[in-house]
UniProtKB/TrEMBL annotation:
<protein>
    <submittedName>
        <fullName>Putative FYVE and coiled-coil domain-containing protein 1</fullName>
    </submittedName>
</protein>
<feature type="domain" description="RUN">
    <location>
        <begin position="24"/>
        <end position="157"/>
    </location>
</feature>
<dbReference type="GO" id="GO:0005764">
    <property type="term" value="C:lysosome"/>
</dbReference>
<dbReference type="Pfam" id="PF02759">
    <property type="entry name" value="RUN"/>
</dbReference>
<dbReference type="GO" id="GO:0005776">
    <property type="term" value="C:autophagosome"/>
</dbReference>
<dbReference type="GO" id="GO:1901098">
    <property type="term" value="P:positive regulation of autophagosome maturation"/>
</dbReference>
<dbReference type="GO" id="GO:0005770">
    <property type="term" value="C:late endosome"/>
</dbReference>
<dbReference type="GO" id="GO:0072383">
    <property type="term" value="P:plus-end-directed vesicle transport along microtubule"/>
</dbReference>
<dbReference type="InterPro" id="IPR004012">
    <property type="entry name" value="Run_dom"/>
</dbReference>
<dbReference type="InterPro" id="IPR037213">
    <property type="entry name" value="Run_dom_sf"/>
</dbReference>
Amino acid sequence: MLQSLKDDIQGMVDDYEETNLPINDDNEKLRRFCERLEFLLKFGLKERSLVLGGRKDLWPYLCRCLEERRNIQEGITLVKANKELKTNTGRHRYFLRYCLLQCCLADVLQQCIADEASTLQFYDTGSLLLQPHFANDLVTSLYVLSDLTFDLALASSSHDLDVSWPAYARVGGASPWSRPPSRTWSLSSLCTRCHVNGHLNV
């Protein structure tokens, strides 16, 4: 699954370099990437209590890990303020798309995985995110996306993220959140990138 995710990333890189246009929801590789990333992030989530049933959700995990990270609070606030999102599934999808737009997806997930206490609270001990080699490989792969530009609609009315990932781009102008990567996103971003590239064998 991780290799397939890497193939999707390389496919988006090839498309971006060939067209010099932002990646949008018409790109089939983007949809496959989102579906695979979601699967990997949800794999190994713990069961809830017998009263609640089902498994724990990805969105509360992201909120828990990032609640004290001021550099990403804008994205968390946008999700919480969006009343059209009815499920935690829709909320984490919206947030992951926001991270793609802001070129900070790898940084955000790196920060979450580094919060070992929260990760152990939400994931089984045998989960993929708790395997250091897998987690490092995943984050390193995601950093490639920081050099791409995305044009993704965040208005919930453009697609029902509670149901599925978008399969086509909305009609209209560029997303108001679509912009070139901001290298001022966080100082910790640069530190994280140096740590990953300096300590991993890719």
